[in-house]
Amino acid sequence: MSSTDPPTAVGAAPTLTARRLDGLADRVFSSPDGSGDDGDGAIDVSGPATDERIGRVPACDADDVSAAVERARDAQTSWAEVSATERARIVDRFGDLVADRREELLDVLQLETGKSRRTAVEELFDVPTGCSYVASEAPGALAEERRRGVAPGVATATVTREPVGVVGVISPWNYPLTLSMADAIPALAAGNAVVLKPDEKTPYGALLLAELLEVAGLPDGLFQVVTGEGPQVGPPLIDAVDYVAFTGSTATGRTIAERAGRNLIGCSLELGGNNPLVVLGDADVDEAARGAVQACFSNAGQLCLSAERIYVVESACDEFLDAFVRETEALTLGTGYDYDADLGSLVDADQLARVESHVEDARERGATVETGGRARTDVAPYCYEPTVLTGVEPDAAVACEETFGPVAAVTAVPDADAAVAAANDSPYGLNASVWTGDRERGAELAREIDCGTVNVNDAFLATWGAVDAPMGGFGDSGLGRRHGPEGILRYTETRTVGVSRVGPLTFPDRIPTDWFVRGAFAATRLGRRMRRGVDEVRRRLSRR
Ligand code: NAD
User: Fold this and answer.
1) Do 119 and 248 sit in the same domain of this protein?
2) 95 lines ligand 1 (CB under 6 A)
3) What stretch or stretches form a coiled coil here (predicted)?
4) DSSP 205-273
5) Claim to verify: residue 190 and residue 291 sit in the same structural domain
6) In this structure, is residue 118 part of a structural domain?
7) DSSP-derived 3-state class of residue 529
């Protein structure tokens, strides 16, 4: 897709022009016979801050998708032969480029998501941080490993890790840069090719990252972007790749898992949540209130890790609520390309309608709106005030479904046990936050909460920012983990090679079989005793 338009600015984004966005759209993979190369079936992309069209990207069809995967597969064969250290170097260079090119990336992010620049910068910061981790850890995690052989001196066992091939990454609109790269970068570092399908609302950030990967030295064809609606592009992608890394809603995640299961390919699913935040009686309530504001209203609540249900032990509830409402009312709304606003816009009309209907439903069931509770179309078409509710019925939509907006329900509970029981009363299990003056107790309580990540005296960064530790959900919040070695190794097949030093491991010819059986059992008993002895010595040494 190309344009003859003059270089006019798009929206109010300082660094972007229509021509630049068209240039990025040209990076979408299109097959010779597909829709992408002739501009047919293009889809409009709108900027939420103004609700105006900012550009068009191809609506790829099944032919485009399978041709993109084929091209990626060709490129992957030689990429797998490149050393893990060299691959890591390219990842590192890419991280540096993202940091260097941040102004344009931030403009793209704000333009297509409507988020505030503060939120955009938090998101962008994740990309070089993740690259730096992957670059330093991937070569070690992927290295060949010696394991215990069948018996000492008899045979060796060595494990190698092979890339799965082509990884399909399907990412959402809420953190389009971070959530594309958190899955794509480790896949590339592990020797795979990647075909990325960004959300149809937010294709430009992904395309700009594709450009930077090329500048960083990633070989041609290894990273492809296909754009279009999920139900059209997703299924042919899953049918063609060797692994799918999906981030999005639980409903879509189930269809992805079904299809991956039918194709017998691996998948990781990072899905929705309805996350709890617990405040104990001994918490510093001002700190907890500041933390709750971050937990509930970052990215206007459109964050999978956002807290939506707050349980406060009765003795601290009034004081906490006062502080939380005060902090919430101090937040500013806006869509400017500066750092003035705390919260930006919701992503579109559907998202605004969902938030409004959840608040309305809670109100109709008797909830009190302590602050907020209104759309702010005077700021931008899809802005909504940060909202605090109390008296929410347990079966209200806000209490049991994911709102994915700036709405938090505060409920008093008698004690810590009741708070944990309420926190666990959900089919989801993504993220939780616990606030207490006693960190050790907080960590103990965290182990009772059924979530993949639990933060003590922090909203979500203590776990999300710990990129060496796995991140993912229990229950309806997903399958598999990103971050840490787990996030790299999911994209590999292991191959175990056993080498016998004594010929075939079967009954020997020259010893009567009953002698051999007796000898073999005696040897394994001796082996077990020696192992127990060694284990005991290790235990004693570790206690010192
Ligand atoms: P969604 O499931 O509708 O869309 C996510 C992606 O899937 C998009 O790229 C979309 O085009 C694609 N898609 C849609 N239908 C598809 C299909 N049939 N086959 C293949 N792909 C398809 O999600 P959404 O509602 O737009 O995103 C918000 C959701 O994502 C929330 O539930 C949020 O909690 C979740 N999320 C989870 C995490 C996490 O790490 N756990 C992170 C961010 C967002």
Assistant:
1) yes
2) no
3) none
4) HHHHHHHHHHHHTPPTTSEEE--S-HHHHHHHHHHH-SEEEEES-HHHHHHHHHHHHHHT-EEEEE---
5) no
6) yes
7) helix
258 included as an active-site residue: no
Judge whether 525 lies within some domain: no
Query: Phi and psi dihedrals of 437, rounded to 5?
Result: -80, -10
Is 64 near ligand 1, meaning CB less than 6 Å away? no
User: Which residue has the least CA distance to atom 8 on ligand 1?
Assistant: 199
Q: Do 300 and 217 fall within a single domain? A: no
User: For position 375, which CATH number holds?
Assistant: 3.40.309.10
Residue with CA at minimum distance from ligand 1 atom 4: 248
Indicate if 312 and 251 belong to the same structural domain.
no
Enclosing domain of residue 217: 62-271+486-492
Per-residue pLDDT of 394-420, as tens digits, reads: 999 999 999 999 999 999 999 999 999
Q: Are residues 247 and 333 both part of a single domain? A: no
Give the residue, out of 249, 268, 460, with the most ligand 1 atoms within 8 A of its beta carbon, to mutate for a pocket test: 249
Do 252 and 310 lie in one domain? The reply is no
Cβ–ligand 1 distance for 424 under 6 Å, the answer: no
Ligand 1 lined by 234 (C-beta under 6 Å):
yes
Q: Are residues 235 and 288 in the same domain?
A: no
How far away, in angstroms, is 198 Cα from ligand 1 center? 10
Do residues 345 and 421 both lie within one domain?
Answer: yes
Out of 137, 200, 270, 308, the active site residue is: 270
Confidence (pLDDT) at 6? 43
pLDDT digits (tens, 9 = 90+) for 99-156: 999 999 999 999 999 999 999 999 999 999 999 999 999 999 999 999 999 988 999 9
Signed CA dihedral, 209, 213, 214, 220: sign only: negative
The protein residue with its alpha carbon nearest to ligand 1, atom 20, reads: 234
